[in-house]
Structures
1.
Amino acid sequence: MTMKSHSNALRADSVGGVLLLVLSAHLFGAAQSAAPVVAPSTASGAFKVSLQGWTGELEFVPFTAADGSTKFVSTIEIPWDLFDVFVFALDDKFATDASKAVTKPTKPYVAADRGFGHKGFPAISLSHKAATQCAAWIAAKASIDARLPTDAEWKLICAQAKIPADAIEEFAWTNENSPDTTHKCGKKKADALGCFDLYGNAGEWVNDAKNPRMMGGSFQDARTAVGCASELTPSEDWNSSDPQFPKSIWWLADGPFCGFRVVSDSVPVKGT
């Protein structure tokens, strides 16, 4: 799918470039959890972290980096209910100096989830900057080296995921089984690493030596267009209908396919 078709497919989501903001009550009623907890997982070397202000757990599984070292990747794309804690400071009671120091996005003036679904659904409509800052916040909250993967790391993760080409529909939401919406994270099969939605659902921001990229394809793409080789360079079309001047550096009015997952270079320090 071309940049133009991505953009055109999104026009129906807006009215005059603006959607009404609907904030679910759960945004302001996030449960207050105890201090961050690191829990073992079932996969060898995997771990889970809980973040104050969020009722869920973020699981990381190991993958082998280019230099042979072990790094870790989140099994799911970052969901809205975790991103809400970041952007709306729902963890304020538990915030540390490090987490407070992370610059947060402006609050959205439109329904950034586009009515697709919220709790458990991948956070979307996010710029590379918004994804980068959320990763830094997760790092500060969980005492891990959380960040966006590089494009090379993402491709290694994808290769090690071993998603069979003849069974993509079992692992991915595409425009052939979900043309108009994202789905809750983790509802398709887990791949060989233990990750979900590496193909399809939301596309995933990565860092590149020159420019950020969007990897993996999304729910808007054909099953033949998602995968390890699927990458997009950001386009101004992804935010063309934003009526603000200057346009938002955090939110993409025409980018409902833009999400992310995070990697970590290390496990959390026990007891943090």
Note: The chain is about 15% helix and 15% strand.
2.
Amino acid sequence: MISKVSKPVYIVENSSIVITLPQEILCEIFNYLREHPVHFTRVAQVCRAWNFAADNHLFWRQLTKTLQLPDPCAI
């Protein structure tokens, strides 16, 4: 037997708080991935907000410094 829901259930699109975080906070979170550079390529695939944050030039500049890679802007 199917039980009835006593109150309406509302599904809010993009209801995750992670999606609403400011870009600066996302970049700080992404900094924790620096020990595993392959994960940097995956964060951009989570959602549009993460893709936008992962595309931030300051984020990539910090990553290249951390990994001791040449600055791509200087090439």
Note: The longest helix spans residues 57-66.
